[in-house]
Amino acid sequence: MYTEKVMDHFQNPRNVGEIENPSGVGEVGNPTCGDMMTIYIDVDENEIIRDIKFKTFGCGAAIATSSMITELAIGKTLDEAYDISKSQVADALDGLPPVKMHCSNLAADALQAAIENYRSKKKE
Ligand code: FES
To answer: Quick one: which atom of ligand 1 is closest to the CA of 100?
Structure first.
């Protein structure tokens, strides 16, 4: 039911962990299944994501989508990263089973939350 890419990112997730003193943190939960995801970003002076890490307590699809979104986001500007959609994440994984599409919302939402957190801190 899962593509090879999903299995690969589930079994060998990229960029797992935390960033100390991150530029922004986004934490989201899925109220239906109770899964949780946190994304940490480190942003350089040109607002490019130079490092990104995640911690996910969730299903295999949630872990695979978190891993994939970190790979899609690294090196991008905040505006570009903010626009990464859940379907782009699923496409990069060669698709997710329809019943698991909601899991990819978590990854896109967590990244947007981390970017919003960075932007709100900057305004202070
Ligand atoms: Fe909860 Fe996938 S079942 S995120």
So the answer is: 2
